[in-house]
Amino acid sequence: MTADSDYQQPQRVQYAQDEQRFPWLVRLLDAYHIIDQGVSAAIKREQLDGRQLACAKGCSSCCASHQDIPVYPLELMGMSWYVIEKLQSPLREQLHQQLQQLDTLDCCPFLLDGACSIHPLRPIACRQFNVLDKPCAEGEDAYHSRKQDVMMPIKRFADEAFDVMLPFYGVKKKSERRKAIKEGRLHAAAKVMRQCNWQALPEKMDAFEQK
Length: 211
Ligand code: SF4
Ligand code: SF4
What we know:
By secondary structure, the chain is mainly α. The protein has one domain (4-209). It is 48% helix and 4% strand. The chain has a two-stranded antiparallel sheet with strand order 1-4. It starts with a helix and ends with a helix.
C-alpha cells in the first residue's frame, strides 16, 4: 500500500497548528515518518535483490480483501481527527455517506473510489503491507496466497516508531519502553480496524462543521 512517490524520499506529514494543539499528533506523525523511512529502506533492499514494488497509486484490492487490519489507539485518534477536522469536499461528503452504510460495505470503511481517503493518516499496518513484483489480483490477499512476495518490514524502524508512541500509553522511561517493545506490549492494545465504531464519525463531522 505504498505508491512509488511515497517511498523515494518519505516526507514527514506536517500539520503545524494542529500539532501545537495536540502533542499526541506530533508523536503519531513522527512515528509514521519513521515507518515510512523503514518501508523506503526495505524497498531499496529488495531492489538490490532485483525485486520491484508492485504497489502503485490506484491499486487497492488489498483494502477490500484484508479483513483484520490492526490499528493502535493512538492511530484511531489520528484517523478520527483527520476525518473530522481535515477531510475536504467532495471526499468528506462521500465518506460521511459511506460511514452510515457500513453494514453493506465489503471493504475498508475509508476506501473511496479505489483510493484511501485518509492516506496521510493511514495506519502502520497499511504503510507496511507491500507486495513485490506482481500486483494483487482482485480479491487476492497476498499474505495468504504468496507470502514470499509480501515485503518484510525492517524491525528496527518499527521498534523506533513504537518507542516514539509508547509515552502516549504512559510508558515514559527509556528502560520501560525497551522492555515494552521487547515484550510486544503495544500489540495487545491493537483493535481490528473494521470492528471499530466508525458509525459515530458522521455525527462528529457534523458537530465540527457547526462550530
Ligand atoms: S499490489 Fe497488492 S498490496 Fe500493493 S497496493 Fe496493490 S493490492 Fe495493495
Ligand atoms: S486505511 Fe486506507 S490504505 Fe488502509 S485499508 Fe483502509 S483504505 Fe486501504
